[in-house]
Amino acid sequence: MIQKTTFNPLTTIQSAQNTAMKDKTPAEMTQSFGDFLQNALNSVQSQEKNVQVLTDKYMVGQADISQVMIASSQAELSLQLTSQVRNKVVEAYQEIMRMQL
Description:
Blueprint: H1 9-20, H2 26-59, H3 65-98
């Protein structure tokens, strides 16, 4: 039995942008962006925990291998995306630090 999983990052980002832009100060916007990043990291962590749970269930015969593989692939893609976002942020920071005033 395969469960349908839905993850639409564009909807999440758009709703976060709409919420963050309504009459907020820069400090409040920074805080809400930080909250958005924290929620995204928590989502990646929960996906990895789900893979561990499914793997344990598979080992005792309570889960199908396709469930484990799908969850594993989703967690891997989420981790790769998180890693790429981190790389881009570091790269942007380094570029800003190289700027001359």
